[in-house]
Specification:
By secondary structure, this protein is α+β, with helices and mostly antiparallel strands. The chain contains 3 helices and 7 strands; from the N terminus they run αβββββββαα.
Length: 181
């Protein structure tokens, strides 16, 4: 066990180009990187707080994401390595989504209501998971991140531009805030 204290991971925000870059598949050579990265991703996600975080959001272009819905306030961490969508339902569901890379911005997003995915867990075991409801939306949202896709891409151009303009304005205001003013 390492006792080294590492600086918390910084979560990138739009318009950082890493968020728009397709992540590379995880290979055996990335094992040590993952061992160090995954616990730090969980720490950053829980601290935010959020229910999902993909590696590109912390500047790492690998196909890794972490998810924890914390249903009934109990931790239920899922590590997704090289996740792929195997099947999606015809029926769709609309729910409000947000993203740690677009802080404070929320919009209704329509996606397939159910999804079946395949991935590797951190031990390298191949897993499949069927999900519905919030988990289905969260898995699709995180897998989108690995392809450089953000939830705003599922909105109309008008709604997307309004949301991105509002975010840019809020981030500008935040950066110009000075203590004691
Ligand atoms: Ni996100």
């Amino acid at each position: 066990m390492s006792t080294v204290t590492l600086a918390p991971l910084k979560i990138l925000t739009v318009p950082d180009p890493v968020l728009r870059t397709r992540a590379r598949p995880v290979a055996a050579e990335h094992e040590a990187t993952l061992r160090a990265l995954v616990p730090r991703m969980f720490a950053a996600m829980y601290a935010a707080p959020g229910i999902g975080l993909a590696a590109p959001q912390v500047g790492v272009g690998l196909r890794v994401a972490v998810v924890d819905l914390m249903a009934e306030d109990k931790p239920d961490p899922i590590v997704l390595i090289n996740p792929e969508i195997l099947a999606t339902s015809e029926d769709r569901e609309t729910r409000e989504e947000g993203c740690l890379s677009l802080p404070g911005q929320y919009a209704d997003v329509t996606r397939p209501a159910r999804v079946r995915i395949r991935f590797h867990d951190q031990q390298g075991a191949r897993r499949e998971l069927s999900a519905e409801g919030l988990l289905a939306a969260c898995l699709q949202h995180e897998i989108d991140h690995l392809d450089g896709v953000l939830f705003v891409d599922h909105l109309s151009t008008l709604k997307r531009n309004m949301l991105l303009r509002r975010l840019a304005k809020e981030l500008r205001q935040k950066h110009s805030d000075r203590p004691g003013r």
